[in-house]
Amino acid sequence: CNLCVRACREVQVNDVIGFSGRGSDTKIVFDFDDKLGVSTCVGCGECVQACPTGALMPKSILDENQNFKFKPDRKVDSICPYCGVGCQLTYNIKDDKIISVSGRPGPANKSRLCVKGRYGFDYISNPERLTKPLIRLKNSNKKNNFNKFDSSEILLNFREASWEEALKYTSDKLRELKNNHGSNSLAGFGSAKGSNEEAYLFQKLIRTAFKTNNVDHCTRLCHASSVAALLENIGSGAVTAPFSEAKNADVIWVIGANPTVNHPVAATFIKNAAKNGSKLFILDPRGQALDRYAQDTLNFIPGTDVSLLNGVIHTIIKEKLYNKKYVETQTIGFEELKKSTQNFSPENMEKICGIPANRIKNLAREYANSKSIIFWGMGISQHTHGTDNARCLISLALLTGNIGFPGTGLHPLRGQNNVQGASDAGLIPMFYPDYKSVEGEHGTIMSDFWHTELENKKGLTVVEIINSAYEGNLKGLYIMGENPAMSDPDQNHARKALANLEFLVVQDIFPTETSAFADVILPASAWPEKDGTVTNTDRKVQIGRKAVPLPGEAKQDWWIIKEIGVQMGLNWNYDSPKEIFNEMKDVMPSLTGITWDRLEKENCVTYPCKDEYSEGSELLFKDGFPTPNGKGKMTSTNILPPDETTNKEFPLILTTGRLLEHWHTGSMTRRSIVLDEIEPTPEVHISPSQLKNIGVNPGDIVNVKTRRGQIKLAVRVDKSLQNDVIFIPFCFKEAAANILTNSALDPYGKIPELKYCAAKIESFA
Ligand code: SF4
Question: pTM for this one?
Answer without folding.
Answer: 0.96
